[in-house]
Automatic annotation (TrEMBL):
Recorded family membership: Belongs to the sulfotransferase 3 family.
Native organism taxonomy: Eukaryota, Metazoa, Chordata, Craniata, Vertebrata
Organism encoding this protein: Ficedula albicollis (Collared flycatcher)
Bilayer topology: Single-pass type II membrane protein
Keywords: Coiled coil, Disulfide bond, Glycoprotein, Golgi apparatus, Membrane, Signal-anchor, Transferase, Transmembrane, Transmembrane helix
Name of the protein described by the UniProt record: Heparan sulfate 2-O-sulfotransferase 1
Membrane as UniProt keyword: yes
Length: 324
C-alpha cells in the first residue's frame, strides 16, 4: 500500500473512532448539556521529541486510560512536520479546548510547543515532555532510520540498506550525522516562531529555556524516566495513578529499542562536541536536567536506595474570622 493510500485509510479509521466515542457520550442527552467536573476539565499535551523514549512513556498512558477514565489521542501530522500551519493551529486549539467528549484528555505527537494564550484561551493545557542527551538521541535516530526497532520490526525504514556506521558517517562528513541534525530539542520547546528553527539561534535557546520553566508542568530526561513517571503520578494522579508500578513491572517499560545501534567512539563524540550547535543543545539539556533534579529533590526522599514521594508538607492556620 502506498503512503497516500495508507494515510487516507488511517484518517478514515480515526474519524470512525471519533464518531463512535462522540455517540457514546451523547446517548443520554445532547452535547451542550454535558457539564464537566473541574477535575475532568483537564488536557495534557505531550509534544514528544523523537527518540527520547516517548513510545515507552506513551504506552503507559494508553495502558492506564481505561482504568483511570481519560482519553488518549495521537496528533498525527503530515510527514511528521512539527510546525503547524496558522489555520491548523487555530483548529487544534479549538479542538483541544472545546472538545468536551475527549476530556480529560492526553494528547501526544511530534509537534513543537504551541502557545494557547496567543489564541485567547482562558484555561491552557498542561504541557509535559522528556528530553535526552543530544548526541545519544541523534545516534539512536541515525540507526532507527536504517534498521528500525523491535516495536515494528517488519516496517521498511527510509534509510534501510545503508550499512554505514555513525562513526563512518561523521568521519566522512555525512549529512545524516552533521551537527545541524542535533538541532531539534531546542526548537521543539521554542515553538512555532521562525527563529526557533534557525539552526544555532541563541534567541531560540533562551526562548526554549523560558518555555520549559514557565509553560511546562514537568520536563523529565530519558535517563531518569522512572523518576519522571513517579513525580507525575504523585502530582497528577487523575491520569497517572498506577503508572510507576506499571513501568516497573509491565512488559512495555522499554518497548521500543533501536536495532543494530553501535555506540560512537570517543573520537566521534569529541568531533561533534566541537560544534556550537552541540554546545547549545547540550546547554539546554543540562538546563532541563538541573531543573528536573531540583523538582525531584523537593518532592522525594531516598531510603535504602529507594525513592519515596513526600507527603503533604504544608497546612493552614490562624484562620480568621473565627466561626461561631
Amino acid at each position: 500500500m502506498c503512503c497516500c493510500a495508507r494515510d487516507r485509510q488511517e484518517r478514515a479509521i480515526a474519524r470512525h473512532e471519533v464518531r463512535e466515542i462522540e455517540q457514546r457520550h451523547t446517548v443520554d442527552g445532547p452535547r451542550q448539556d454535558v457539564t464537566l467536573d473541574e477535575e475532568d476539565d483537564v488536557v495534557i499535551i505531550y509534544n514528544r521529541v523523537p527518540k527520547t523514549a516517548s513510545t515507552s512513556f506513551t504506552n503507559i498512558a494508553y495502558d492506564l486510560c481505561a482504568k483511570n477514565k481519560y482519553h488518549v489521542l495521537h496528533i498525527n501530522t503530515t510527514k511528521n512536520n512539527p510546525v503547524m500551519s496558522l489555520q491548523d493551529q487555530v483548529r487544534f486549539v479549538k479542538n483541544v479546548t472545546s472538545w468536551r467528549e475527549m476530556k480529560p484528555g492526553f494528547y501526544h505527537g511530534h509537534v513543537s510547543y504551541l502557545d494557547f494564550a496567543k489564541f485567547g484561551v482562558k484555561k491552557k493545557p498542561i504541557y509535559i515532555n522528556v528530553i535526552r542527551d543530544p548526541i545519544e538521541r541523534l545516534v539512536s535516530y541515525y540507526y532507527f532510520l536504517r534498521f528500525g526497532d523491535d516495536y515494528r520490526p517488519g516496517l521498511r525504514r527510509r534509510k534501510q540498506g545503508d550499512k554505514k556506521t555513525f562513526d563512518e558517517c561523521v568521519a566522512a562528513g555525512g549529512s545524516d550525522c552533521a551537527p545541524e541534525k542535533l538541532w531539534l530539542q531546542i526548537p521543539f520547546f521554542c515553538g512555532h516562531s521562525s527563529e526557533c528553527w534557525n539552526v544555532g539561534s541563541r534567541w531560540a535557546l533562551e526562548q526554549a529555556k523560558y518555555n520549559l520553566i514557565n509553560e511546562y508542568f514537568l520536563v523529565g530526561v530519558t535517563e531518569e524516566l522512572e523518576d519522571f513517571i513517579m513525580l507525575l503520578e504523585a502530582a497528577l494522579p487523575r491520569f497517572f495513578r498506577g503508572a510507576t508500578e506499571l513501568y516497573r513491572t509491565g512488559k512495555k517499560s522499554h518497548l521500543r529499542k533501536t536495532t543494530e545501534k553501535k555506540l560512537p567512539t570517543k573520537e566521534t563524540i569529541a568531533k561533534l562536541q566541537q560544534s556550537e550547535i552541540w554546545k547549545m543543545e547540550n546547554e539546554f539539556y543540562e538546563f532541563a536536567l538541573e531543573q528536573f533534579q531540583f523538582v525531584r529533590a523537593h518532592a522525594v526522599r531516598e531510603k535504602d536506595g529507594e525513592l519515596y514521594i513526600l507527603a503533604q508538607n504544608f497546612f493552614y492556620e490562624k484562620i480568621y474570622p473565627k466561626s461561631n
